[in-house]
Design goal:
Layout: E1 7-11, H1 21-35, E2 40-44, H2 50-56, E3 62-66, H3 83-88, E4 93-96, H4 99-104, H5 109-121, E5 125-130, H6 134-138, H7 142-153, E6 163-167, H8 181-198, H9 201-206, E7 208-212, H10 217-224, E8 231-234, H11 241-252
Parallel strand pairs: 1-2, 1-8, 2-3, 3-4, 4-5, 5-6, 6-7, 7-8
């Protein structure tokens, strides 16, 4: 059983203007200097920057993704963006079910699943986020919550080449807190075993399971060394190329 090639994706959230291109450019320079060896690297800027970033990065190995999509192809959904539109702008992936979408927009797992389906319909990789709140962890419900989100959000056509799972404990996002390495390992192992229950061995072992939540250059090496952690989904530390490269280069140094 070969380990999947890791992926480090930067989720810029609602940050970034056209002038932020300079960070993408510095990232590309760092990658060209060898810091991105042995790892797939992706930037998920706000939708307004996807076309600019994907055309500017077309001769690099950096992938571009969206942060959310609507489940339908088109129609009367003011303010929403179809997966096909992201693909048309040059994206190759989209994050779905981020905890900020689940919390701020009341997105339940059935909605997340339909968004993941839409991503696949458009030829995009779906990065499906799951993770417990602080209260759920304190109650001892972490694995139960993660299982329910995974089962509810994973589309039937999930495969290793079109789906990535991101485990992001809600209480670790943007807080500087991270679970212990044992706790990260426990949840990732659990997700892998749930994938094995749902999919054949090749697909279940090939789907990348990212860890997300306060990943920084200083803690990336130990987090990425945990079994079944196949990369990271990075928020704050992806906004500055130097910090992001500090995380990505963990794999180049392996
Ligand atoms: P953070 O965000 O790295 O700033 O904690 C991670 C995320 O929300 O994807």
């Amino acid at each position: 059983m070969t380990q999947p090639r890791p992926l480090v994706a930067g989720n810029w959230k609602m940050n970034g203007l056209r002038a932020s291109w300079k960070e993408a450019e510095s990232l590309a320079e760092g990658m060209a200097a060898g810091k991105g060896a042995n790892v797939d690297v992706m930037l998920c800027p706000p939708a307004t920057l996807i076309a600019q970033f994907s055309s500017g990065l077309k001769d690099t190995d950096i992938l571009v993704g969206g942060q959310d999509c609507h489940s339908e192809l088109s129609g009367a959904h003011t303010g929403d963006i179809a997966a096909e539109m992201l693909a048309d702008a040059g994206a190759s992936a989209v994050i779905v079910g981020h905890s900020e979408r689940r919390a701020d927009h009341g997105e339940a797992s059935d909605v997340v699943r339909s968004k993941a389906h839409a991503a696949h319909r458009a030829g995009l990789m779906a990065i499906i986020c799951v993770g417990e709140t602080e209260a759920e962890r304190k109650r001892g419900d972490t694995l139960k919550v993660v299982s329910a989100q995974l089962s509810g959000s994973l589309p039937d056509d999930a495969r290793a080449d079109n789906t990535v799972i991101a485990y992001e404990p809600v209480w670790a996002i943007g807080t500087g807190l991270t679970p212990t390495l044992d706790d990260v390992g426990e949840v990732h192992r659990h997700i892998r075993s749930e994938l094995r229950d749902k999919l054949d061995e090749e697909q279940a072992s090939g789907i990348r399971i990212l860890y997300g939540g306060s990943v920084k250059p200083g803690n990336a090496a130990e987090l990425m060394a945990v079994t079944d952690v196949d990369g990271a989904l990075v928020g704050g530390a992806s906004l500055k190329a130097d910090d992001f490269l500090g995380i990505i280069s963990v794999y180049a140094e392996k």
